[in-house]
Amino acid sequence: MELDTPLTSPAAQGGRRSQLWKRFKKQKVLHAFVGLGMIFLLVFSYTPMFGILMAFKDYSISNGIQGIFTSEWVGLRYFDEFIHDYQFATIVRNTLVLSFLKVIFAFPAPILLAIMLNEVKNMAFKRFVQTISYLPHFISWVVVVGVSYAFLSADVGMVNRALVEAGLIDKPLNILTSPDYFWGLAVGSAIWKEMGWWTIIFLAAITGINPSLYEAAEIDGAGRLARIRYITLPGMKGTIVVVLVLTIGSILGGGLVGSNFEQAYLFGNSINNPTSEIVQTYAFKVGLSDGRFSYAAAIDLIQSVISVVLIFSSNFIAKRVSGSSLF
Amino acid sequence: MLKSQKQKDFLFDSVIYIVLFIIMLTMLYPFYYVLIASFNKGSDTLLGGVYLWPRSVTLENYKIFLEDPKWYRAFLVTVARTITGTALGLLLTSLVAYALSHRDLLFSKTYFSIIVFAMYFSGGLIPYYVVLRSIGLLNSFAVYIVPSMLNTFFLLIAISFFREIPGEMKESAHMDGAGELVIFFRIILPVSTPVLATMALFMGVGQWNSWLDSAYFVQSENLRTLTYRMMEVINKSNSPMDAIAVANSASASAGVTSFSLQVTSMVVSIVPIICVYPFLQKYFVHGIMLGSVKG
Fold first, then answer.
1. Are A246 and A326 in contact (CB under 8 A)?
2. Is any Cβ of chain A less than 8 angstroms from the Cβ of B239?
3. Nearest Cα to A326, choosing from A246, A263, A251?
4. Which of A129, A177, A223 sits opposite B24 (nearest CB)?
5. What is the ipTM of this complex?
6. Average pLDDT for A286-293
7. Is a pLDDT exceeding 90 seen at residue A74?
8. pLDDT digits over B182-207, tens only?
9. Within an 8 Å CB–CB cutoff, is residue B110 touching chain A?
10. Where, by residue number, does the polypeptide cross the bilayer (chain A) (predicted)?
11. What is the Cα–Cα distance from A210 to B291, expressed in whole angstroms?
């Protein structure tokens, strides 16, 4: 406002600078508050970003933070090592399969639930179902795994025992401790935990649809399914695209429907390891358990780079195909 | 042959109601089962057949839970970290947000770019661990609190909330010679309860549910949290050798098994969330909408 004075003479410029300084001094307490926040960001966000350098260096934890800068450059040695790791193919396959299964099965679940809830006329029932459905979102993954254990484990699992008693199976299924079931378990528990939460946003999208469209369709003789197909779904298109872009961008982390890392780590054990080990859990174990920090940072970095590429390309495709996009 | 529209609608509605009812049951029953199992005698639960109500009602599980120093201590640490972490997180995040909510603040563009960049990019877990280690936060209670004190997501939400507060309130306080801290505590915070409540609830739930920091940033047994202890039991019982040990440990004290202790700890962990759930609900619909617009 007062800064808009034209900068003609050096005197005016000097005046402007001193005015700025005056303003700054007046705001110094506020800048101190912001500065405090900036220190937190510097320490906990930006220093780790510089820490990525260690992926290209021979870093040893005993050298602390300075070691990130002083240790010797090794170029792409650790990236090369990861590609030749004997577990490389398995880990990459698990990460991709788990991520895509979640997009295929867990992403549409809240859309279907939102459409079904929208068809319910009884408001009390609708609200009750919705309230219950997002409760699991607020429960820790540790508890979700604990609940799964109580239901599915081969020795104390309630479902397993009931099935055996009913004579439907001969012996308990090793759902938690067998590589055959892990992907199903992960997708199923992700749907259970996050479906209701993401329904909120899709229901909001449906609320935004003009009710007169439904009335007109009804007069034209469109049945319930036809109205869903031709009014509800097109009305949700924008939201669906935005959420899909977000999901694909974070697909390697598990998308928006449940963290791959938490699932793979907490459901994972030595027996289902052949299907449950993913890039993130591997980097984590290699880094924090084996102390190979540079190697782990390199593995982590590969995943981050792929994620950034994915979000930009999915956004680009969404813009081209449907006209709606995230940025 | 053609069914009337009414019949079709009835069929359609029935299918939807039945599917929704099943979904509701799958969401609700696990919580209920864990609850009744925690009130059932541990050794009796292992016999199977407990589905709808406790068969052999007992409070032993809770008694042992509270008497076991390991569990009890974990519970206290979790409560302490939730309260401290939420309070300090709320304080720092809203203080910084207050300063940044001044539209005439110099360099605010720079500040915002720094914040938004930090929201979208991270160095990953490994360098983060190195940082925590070098500044001496590892293996201390502070590692639960300090790194999450500034929440960038809620920072942006609080800024937009504070900006809606009429400027006259601040100006008249300035006239009276009040400093920024006084204005922040006496004028801004009291009128900001909706946003503060939202932040407190989400930060609180985050603190309460967090498990990774207790598993990897802390070694002292005294600092373990509830989620960590649960994880420990689950990990143990999933390895085949220990499954036998679990079955055998169905012994000494009043039929309490490691499984019944585990479900008890789960109830202890879920109940506080259910208690704040009505409040969470009141605020989070707004929160997720904001988040999705910004995200």
1. yes
2. yes
3. A246
4. A129
5. 0.86
6. 88
7. no
8. 999 988 898 888 889 889 988 999 99
9. no
10. 29-56, 96-120, 132-152, 195-217, 238-257, 293-318
11. 24
Looking at the partner chain, which of B17, B123, B237 has a beta carbon nearest the beta carbon of A52? B123
Is position B87 within any domain? Answer: yes
Where does the pLDDT of residue A13 fall: very low under 50, low under 70, confident under 90, or very high at 90 and above? low
CA angle in degrees (0–180, nearest 5) for A162-A163-A164: 90
Given the structure tokens 């925690």, which residue do they identify? B38
Q: Is A158 exposed, middle or buried (0-12, 13-18, 19+ CB in 10 A)?
A: buried
Min Cα distance A30 → chain B (Å) is 5
Chain A contacts of B181, Cβ < 8 Å?
A: 29
Domain count, chain B: 1
Instruction: Tell me which chain B residue has its CA closest to the CA of residue A131.
Output: B281
CATH no. for A77-322: 1.10.3720.10
Asked if A129's CB is within 8 angstroms of B23's CB, the reply is yes
* pLDDT over 80 at A8, yes or no: no
For residue B251, is it within any domain?
yes
CATH of the domain at B115: 1.10.3720.10
Residue B96's nearest CA partner among A31, A37, A44, A26 is A37
Q: Name the residue range of residue B229's domain.
A: 39-44+56-294
Per cent of chain B over pLDDT 90 is 37
pLDDT tens digit sequence for B57-73: 888 888 888 888 888 89
Nearest alpha-carbon partner for B251 in B45, B38, B42, B47: B42
Contact A142 B234 (CB under 8 A): yes
Write down how long chain A is: 327
More confident residue, A78 or A63: A78
User: Which residues partner with A57 through β-bridges?
Assistant: A73
State residue B245's pLDDT score. Answer: 47
pTM: 0.86
* Cβ-based neighbours of B45, under 8 Å, separated by 6 or more: A156, B37, B257, B259, B260
Chain A partners within 8 Å of B209 (Cβ): 138-143
Average pLDDT along chain B: 84
Q: Name the residue facing B180 among A29, A133, A270 (closest C-beta).
A: A29
Closest Cα in chain A to B202: A138
Task: Please judge whether B33 and A151 are an interchain contact, meaning their C-beta atoms are less than 8 angstroms apart.
Answer: yes
User: Per the domain annotation, does B14 fall within a domain?
Assistant: no
Asked whether the beta carbons of B285 and A200 are under 8 A apart, the reply is: yes
CB contact residues (below 8 A), chain A span 182-201, against chain B: 192, 196-197, 200-201
Domain residue limits, chain A: 2-59, 77-322
Contacts of A45 in chain B (CB under 8 A): 118, 122-123
Cα–Cα dist A289/A185, whole Å: 26
Longest dimension (CA), chain A: 95
Q: Residue A290's CB: how many other CB atoms inside 10 A?
A: 10
Is there a contact between A145 and B234 if contact means CB atoms under 8 Å apart?
Answer: yes
CA distance B41 to B261: 10
